[in-house]
Amino acid sequence: MIDFENIVRLTDSEFEKFAKLVYNESGIFLKTTKLTLLSNRLRKRLNALNLKTFTEYYDYINSLADRSKEIESLIDVVSTNETYFFRNEKQFESLTGECFPEISKRKQTDKRLRIWSAGCSTGEEPYTIGICILEAGSLFQGWDIEIIATDIAYSVLDFAKKGEYSGRRIDKVKPELLKKYFLKSDSEQYTIKDEVKKIINFKLLNLFKDSYPVNIDIIFCRNVMIYFDKEHQKKLLSGFYRSIQNNGYLFLGHSETIHSISDDFTYRKIIDSPVYIPKDK
Ligand SMILES: C[S@@+](CC[C@H](N)C(=O)[O-])C[C@H]1O[C@@H](n2cnc3c(N)ncnc32)[C@H](O)[C@@H]1O
Predict the structure, then answer these.
(1) Backbone phi, then psi, for 263, in 5-degree steps?
(2) Residue nearest to atom 10 of ligand 1 (CA)
(3) How confident is the model at residue 187 (pLDDT cuts 50, 70, 90)?
(4) Is residue 223 lining ligand 1, measured as CB closer than 6 Å?
(5) Higher pLDDT, 188 or 4
């Protein structure tokens, strides 16, 4: 029986090897200060594969004829997935108060709304967007609506598809919205209703390996860019510029900026939060 708790931390050279592998496969940049964090997360894979050491795990990955499945599992345990409903509420006020009315007016003949939640984690962000769309009522009546919700980690997508939430994940949902868009089960568990689920399309997508969806009106990519270095942030933003429609909107996380990374977008302040608008294509 292997005593997994006592497997020592990664050595500096093991850390370097894994950090490089993670970086090459996902763009996630791990500083040496993350050594303990990475050790703890990798232990889950060692445990699952019944391996004794980090080096054995590294060699195991490289011995595989097709590494892709194990790389997916590796990234799955390494990625940070913190999220909750109505995270940074002001942005949803901007979305409903300004972006939605503008789009609705501008696309009266087209009547198609495509929103991309890139790095959607366990689904709270795309479901929040979905609730905002349904709350907009007549604004999008009869429209063709799709929220594309993507992430590199398959376990968070499985969680998202189930749509069951509790505790602090739903703390910021107003009681009337909780009642309207969730079904309460016996325990303190709330399940998102089908009317929200059906406008969301969850997909596995690696932002540095896979192609991006196109003709997007609004991109949410919040609290994702912080995990990448400048080179990858640049790649990401130029990809978003190709994906987004003229007059579209890009929402980034609270601590993220495009300043000194991309000239493709201009800055606009709506209801106290920055929104990025693509320059004319
Ligand atoms: C902290 S969560 C952000 C969740 C949500 N956007 C929010 O702001 O609440 C970051 C997500 O980005 C995903 N991610 C990291 N690198 C990625 C990549 N290369 N491609 C796609 N998703 C990635 C992670 O798996 C994780 O679920």
Answers:
(1) -105, 5
(2) 224
(3) confident
(4) yes
(5) 188
226 CA from centroid of ligand 1 (Å) = 10
| Fold for the domain defined by 89-163+193-278 | Rossmann fold (3.40.50)
CATH architecture of 4-78: Orthogonal Bundle (1.10)
Residues 6+ positions from 182 with CB-CB distance below 8 Å: 165, 170, 173, 190, 191, 192, 193
Determine the distance separating the centroid of ligand 1 and the alpha carbon of 136, expressed in angstroms. Answer: 27
Structure tokens at 127: 């479901």
Q: Where are the beta strands (DSSP E) in 94-160?
A: 112-118, 144-151
Q: Which amino acid type is present at position 121?
A: S
Predicted pLDDT at 270: 84
CA-to-CA separations, 222 to 16, 68, 120, 149, in angstroms, rounded: 27, 26, 9, 12
pLDDT at 196: 98
Decide if 4-78 and 89-163+193-278 have a common fold.
Answer: no
Does 20 have pLDDT greater than 60? Answer: yes
What is the CB-side half-sphere exposure of residue 146 using CA atoms within 13 A?
Answer: 12
- Nearest-5° Cα angle at 252, 176 to 163: 40
Contacts of 195 (CB under 8 A, 6+ apart): 134, 181
pTM over 0.70: yes
Q: What is the pLDDT of residue 244?
A: 98
Give the residue extent of every domain in the chain. Answer: 4-78, 89-163+193-278
